[in-house]
Amino acid sequence: MSVAMSDIGKAVLETEYAVRGPIVARAQELERSGRRVIYCNIGNPQALGQKPLSWTRNLLALCELPGLSMQAPGVFREDVIEAANAILTGSKHGLGAYSESKGLKVVRDAVAAFITRRDGIACDADHLFLTDGASKGVQAALRLLIAGPEDGIMVPIPQYPLYSATITMYQGRQVDYYLDEEHDWALSRDMLEEAIAKARSVGTKVKAIVVINPGNPTGSVLKPDNVRMVIGFAKEHGLAILADEVYQDNIYREGESFESFAKAMVELGETNVTLFSFHSTSKGFLGECGHRGGYMEVRGVPEDVMAQILKMQSVSLCANLSGQAALYSLVSPPPVGGPSRAEYDRERGGILGELKARARSLADGLNAIPGFRCNEVAGAMYAFPRFELPAGKTDTQWCMDLLEKTGICVVPGSGFGQLPGTAHFRTTILPPREQLDEVVRSIAAFNAGYR
Fold first, then answer.
1. DSSP 222-287
2. Which of 156, 190, 252, 300 is the most exposed place for a label (fewest CB within 10 A)?
3. What is the mean pLDDT of the chain?
4. How many folded domains does the chain comprise?
């Protein structure tokens, strides 16, 4: 007897993940039939032409095939050979063997050193968990926190669908707090207080607040005062903080800067708020989505709870080792003055500079379309324009029709959440500029004739 839909749990049936939903499935069908499709639905840089960093790929090659530098003398620079040897020595058995469940100590030490350099604060490598991309860390934190069907997690609207999907899968409650589109997707204490009061009035036990900084899909960047405000709010209401910081290198607007929640907590002297913060090799300037590297740092958690997190991690044995090596390449760049540093700086600067130019070009192009309004893309990899829909149409229908007509694949705003009565879609800034210009022209032409 085969498994039927009636055999599947309600939580699975109700789970939705918009960035890989029906529109993307249709895009893949069209592509298989010979149609040209431009995928703007997901932050997948190398699929849209971004070249991998030489530092990362040389390091991975040497880790995957120990002795390669001896077989190809003169091909690999001394600093990358030393970095690969550090990983291999730390792993003892190479990338083909399991590591300890938290991840290789040599990589966790490198992450701790990275956080110290970034923030000027101490970091305990034993409070770091290496994960298969940031997503697995997020899912682990939510699994830990959602203990029953009344437990709620505060999520920004619009949000990244990983959060809504995982909360549904774990049978918790999503507590929406709306970002203010009219004021550059701003976050206010009043909005947070209103959201938590509404949730508690219907019996929701609010356990945590999610903050995505820089924002996905909004492209906004939190001011330091906002970060501190969230910490104060969390402390007052007894909430954990889930800080999604995977776009911390993607800052484009002049005068903006990234400040981590960990740094703010230390500067505030705050030790009684639990913080889960996440970073990834998939975004930033590395774009190594397929290697699934990431980490979760945990602060303000007692040792008995840390033991439960470790137990959860142990069920999957460990994060994949090539992802751990890719993460090492992110947090341990070539030494300044070393033979690989000039190439690294040139490649890194070229990628971030091009993304900055695309962010400006895309927002300007979308704002030139009648009926469209797009806030400046200050950070991350996306634009989230608002547009006018004809009566009787939904944003999902509009996005599907756009795909069928033009081959452009974007995600409807309803998949991320939006203010009732408004319509948006999310598109990446990742296609090359000439292709990005084509995307804007095609959207403008399509929308002008849309009925």
1. --HHHHHHHHHHHHHHT-EEEEE-TTTT-B-STT-----HHHHHHHHT--SS-EEEEEESSSTTT-
2. 190
3. 91
4. 2
